[in-house]
Every structure is written in structure tokens, then in C-alpha cells.
């Protein structure tokens, strides 16, 4: 294995819907609303269920996601899956950020089922995140999965913490990248990847 990945953020989560709903009820009350009015009666429970869905990635493990979809294949050319839709929650403000993920890797006698790349994105994005860490987690998970000659991950996202509050810049986007192995060491390989993901 060329790199080692340690998923320190993957911890089993006990779903305590009642306690989470109570916490949401308190928040709603403290912003000045009446939690007993008709439109809000079931909101705390709905919000708790939604938060559990938004963070379901904590209950997933890479081995379960891969489900043995790693195949021996004598293919040594670049594999790219781009424009993978991504939704996550900013860990600083608990508001969404969303965008697109582009993943490329150079196989080393093993390939990964294409849908698994999207599932890896889903597992790590369905957690409280920062975009920089999310980018690296996806890349290192790919290394763990197939031990490729290299991995490249680029994420382009819009953060609601910059749109709905703070500087309120609705057109601002954030781009992050993680290049490992040959994508970091060889400028031509990196350039080929970047050209391909930007090709319309």
C-alpha cells in the first residue's frame, strides 16, 4: 500500500431521536417561536430525523461500502468519474454546502466498481465536514480500496455559511484538491486529469 488511511471520524452513532427532538424544541423556543402552534408541533421530530439522515455517514464503514467490488484488471490508464453531486454540512455553522466531486485514479492491477466512487463520496459527505478534510478523506479512501499508482480528487462547492450569513456572497465557490502518488509527483499526469475534468 502506498498510503495509509485512518478514518478517525468514523464512530458508531446511537440514534436517540427523543433527545435530539427535545434539543430542537429548545432551539425553536429560544428563537422566539411557539413550539406548540400547529405548524411546529412535529418540527422537532422531523428536524431530528433529518439530521440523522444528513449525518448517516458516521454509521458507514469503507469495507461495507466497497462490498467486494474490487476487481483484478490489467488496466494502467487513468480512470475518472466526474461531476458526482455532493451535499454536506459545514461543521462550523451546521448549514449546508454542496457541489461536485471529480475523482481520478491510475490503477495498479486493481479497479473499483464505478458506483463505489460515488458511494465513498456519499459516506464522507454525510458527516459534519470541512471541504478540505472531505477532499483528503475521499482520496485516502481510494488508496485504501485499490492501492493505485495515484489518486486525484477535486471538489467545487458553494457554502451556505458564505451565502446566507456573514459576507453573503451568493456566487462564491470553493475549490479544493488532493493529489497523491503519481498525480502529485508527475505534472503531466496531473495536467491530463485537470484537462479531462474541465472538458465539456
TrEMBL record:
GO annotations under biological process? pigment biosynthetic process; tetrahydrobiopterin biosynthetic process; tetrahydrofolate biosynthetic process
Q: Which GO terms describe its molecular function?
A: GTP binding; GTP cyclohydrolase I activity; zinc ion binding
CDD domains given in the database record: GTP_cyclohydro1 (cd00642)
Looking up SUPFAM superfamilies in the UniProt record yields:
Tetrahydrobiopterin biosynthesis enzymes-like (SSF55620)
GO cellular component term of the entry, any:
cytoplasm
GTP cyclohydrolase I domain location, by residue?
21-197
Q: Which domain of life is it from?
A: Eukaryota
**Which pathway is it part of?**
Cofactor biosynthesis; 7,8-dihydroneopterin triphosphate biosynthesis; 7,8-dihydroneopterin triphosphate from GTP: step 1/1
Which leading EC class covers this enzyme? hydrolase
Q: Which UniProt keywords apply?
A: GTP-binding, Hydrolase, Nucleotide-binding, Tetrahydrobiopterin biosynthesis
Quickly give the catalysed reaction.
GTP + H2O = 7,8-dihydroneopterin 3'-triphosphate + formate + H(+)
In terms of InterPro entries, this protein maps to: GTP-CH-I_C/QueF, GTP-CH-I_N, GTP_CycHdrlase_I, GTP_CycHdrlase_I_CS, GTP_CycHdrlase_I_dom
The EC number(s) this enzyme carries? 3.5.4.16
Assembly mode? Toroid-shaped homodecamer, composed of two pentamers of five dimers.
Q: Which family does it belong to?
A: Belongs to the GTP cyclohydrolase I family.
Q: Which PANTHER family match?
A: GTP CYCLOHYDROLASE 1, GTP CYCLOHYDROLASE I
Question: Under what name is this protein listed?
Answer: GTP cyclohydrolase 1
Which organism encodes this protein? Heligmosomoides polygyrus (Parasitic roundworm)
